[in-house]
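EI: anyone free to look at a 296-residue chain?
SC: sure, send it
EI:
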Amino acid sequence: MEKILTPPAFLTTLRSNLALSASEPSPYNSLTSTPIAANFNLAPRSQPAPSKLSISTSAFDFYDDPKPEPEPLPTLTTTVAGPDHVEDRSAALGLIAQSVKEQRWTNAKAAVLHPTSIAGIVVALGLLMKAFSPPLLTLLIASSAVFGLMALYWVTMDYGYLALAIDWDWFDYAKKTGNAHGGRGEDSIVLVSRWGEEIIAAVVLRVVKRERKGYVKAWTVEKGYRGNGVGAGLMEEAVRVAWGKGARTMVFETDHANSHRVLPPMFNHSFDVKEAKARMLLADMAADIKREKSSR
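SC: here you go
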């Protein structure tokens, strides 16, 4: 095979034609499609001053302000409300009257849910179902329920009247009943417990010095604060006050504020149980304080 000989002059001419001038870039240069940023500077620029109307949304802004300190919890205090403490005695009267009103609904609930009542309702429904058609039976059941509730409301209405009778004269036991348990002129002693500024419990008692005995006329705690030992602490303080005035034994008045019953005895079981526990607690407190004083 013959070799193709290329003359030197041809190579020189080709080299001259393909030479790229630096001053005249080729139209096919790949860099021409990419604009060149003149004076490109990576140094940080100063930020403009924020507007006065702008609101910062930085995540750390929420923690700049110090957290407000929690308010201290109220304290429980017990004080003697003398005759000149009109507001305290008025609050005590309100608590006692409210406790009497609560007896109405407690007694009504006990009457409705008593086994005897439930058995009577079941027997009556059975007899009515045999004697009347379903439409008439529904009407009779509804009307009987309405009349039964109305009768129960009317019977327990006495609790409302008893609550209204707890007024300022109620404090003066001798004025209303005469020579009872020791005579006239024996002022009632009123103690109240405060949770902060709110009066939440009250006890009313009197001391008959010649009998050396204290009589509790009322003892109540506001409904939302019961079951926390507020009443027991108040009663203990009341026994100590009575001891200081000469009482060596403590009992409840026969006709204390919550002693009245308006329904038959079989519906008063819950009242009787609570009263028995209260009497036992009072007697135990009096005995404990007596032993405490005697040991000194």
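EI: Residues 26-44, 51-55, 178-186 have pLDDT under 50 and may be disordered.
SC: 👍
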